[in-house]
Design brief:
This protein is mostly helical. The protein is about 60% helix and about 5% strand.
Length: about 260
């Protein structure tokens, strides 16, 4: 069963990709890698703020289509995920920063692009199947996490990331549509809720890659300027863990022996 090795090999590959260092125009101390990454993420999306509504509208339209025709929406969801990841790889992974000059986040660009390609393959194969039946009620408890990143209630002031609960951001924030760490929890929530196959390779490598970035971004809690960013990355961490362990929870439930009536 060679296919059993695909997921471990893909995980190893994603770990290697995640370790690729940023490429900068000006040299930097390797101990400042997190600052290099943050310097890019703070400004890379700013030129595209006016386009944030497109991704909110696209997600809502996709959800309506999914609720209307779940039997046909699998290809649309997979295609949307793939295209959104490719857009993020092209936009969020680079910027001209004040301290480091032109900076390319190699790991983010390569990893997100590979996920985008993987989901486009799923689109071509039409292998993502969705259903509205037999959804466990506990899964709806994850909805607030998806709504939080869909809202992306934040603003930047200098090097600080602060809360911004402007309700207009629910429909306009480009931090949702153009940030890997904010769109991925929404994708994972939809897949957890509606997908009929939580053991597919693309689903699992998406969840594993999200876990890597979810863990890495918990470092924001140790910087008083980015504590709110740490809060906003909790959905990525929690939903990736749920997505990864969901197939095993389902297996345990199926294998649980029935109680014999006395």
């Amino acid at each position: 069963m060679a296919h059993k090795w695909y997921f471990p090999l893909a995980c190893i590959g994603l770990v290697i990709v995640a370790m690729l260092p940023p490429l900068t125009e000006l040299p930097y101390d390797s101990r400042s890698t997190q600052d290099v990454i943050l310097s890019v993420l703070m400004i890379s999306v700013q030129p595209y703020q006016a386009w944030g509504w497109i991704f909110h509208a696209g997600t809502l339209l996709l959800l309506l289509y999914l609720l209307w025709r779940p039997d046909q929406a699998g290809r649309a969801l997979a295609g949307y995920i793939g295209i959104n990841y490719l857009v993020i790889a092209a936009i969020q992974s680079h910027a001209v920063t004040e301290k480091y000059g032109f900076t390319l986040l190699t790991s983010a660009m390569v990893g997100t692009a590979l996920l985008g390609i993987a989901w486009l393959v799923v689109t071509i194969q039409n292998s993502l199947k969705l259903s509205l039946h037999n959804i466990s009620k506990w899964k709806y408890l994850l909805l607030p996490l998806a709504l939080l990143v869909f809202w992306s209630p934040l603003k930047t002031e200098g090097n600080a990331v602060l809360p911004n609960f402007d309700p207009r951001l629910l429909f306009t924030s480009a931090d949702y549509g153009l940030s890997y760490c904010f769109v991925t929890p929404v994708f994972l929530f939809l897949l957890i809720l509606f997908s009929t196959n939580h053991t597919s390779l693309t689903y699992r490598i998406t969840a594993f890659n999200a876990l890597l970035y979810g863990l890495f971004n918990q470092l924001h809690w140790f910087n008083p300027n980015t504590t709110w960013m740490g809060v906003l990355h909790l959905p990525l961490l929690i939903l990736s863990l749920v997505a990864l362990f969901l197939p095993y929870l389902g297996r345990v439930h199926r294998e649980k022996p029935a109680l014999n009536p006395s």
